[in-house]
Amino acid sequence: MKEIRSILFPTDFSAVANSALPLAITLAARFGATIQALHITDGGDPHITESSRYEFPELPAGTPSQVQLKEAVVQKTLDDPSEIIMREAEGRDCDLIMMASHGRSDVAQFFLGRSVAERVARDSIIPAIIVRLYGPRRTTRPIDRFARIVYATDLAEHTRGILPTAASIAHRTGAQLTALCVFDEGDEQPADGGKAILEKFFADAGAVESSWDCKTVRGGVAEAVLEYAETNEVDLIATTTALCSGGDPELTGTAEFIIRNAPCPVLCVRP
Prior knowledge:
With 271 residues, the chain is an alpha/beta fold. It is 28% helix and 22% strand.
């Protein structure tokens, strides 16, 4: 299973962007990881010490002492901010990116809803957790809670890339991990429902069979995944950009819909 030793937490200092911090703290505490808070300045931002509005968030009282929060400010370049985030994550040897899907559009201007956060979700080879806290369909439950994690897969090789991270989070948090096998209308379903394939996926990820179970949904895949997550009060959906792609690693409409509309944070990676 994958170890998480460093978590990149991009923020524009807004309350919405900082709302993803509790989830980063929860995971950092369970893994003994360092949180690296990152702010991208375009040169027009007030200096971060001039006003409390422009300060990095502090760790709340009661945060385990082993959790460290390191701060970094980088200058915006001609590159898209999502490229900067992904480059910083790789350069700082981060194992996970944790970010809200929205922030304040008049500060740093890099959390623009479907632009930066979803570009990170689409292109990052480092697993990213996207937390949607804005809009009509958004995360509504406490985001620092882990009881149920769903790994959405169509049993294709391209959908197994996120499993080591999902299994590791489930193991460290004590969450129930459910493999949700998704089949579109007309897809051929294995006689055993995909259990043999899943057993290999989980064995390769270092997860024992007793730590996960398997469910199946058919038709209207994206909506079916979200409905399952809502009905079962899932705390994290794990998938890859290649869900229902037929082997293409590009972001599919199914994966994009899940990221945009999930009732809980989404853990994703480009395989």
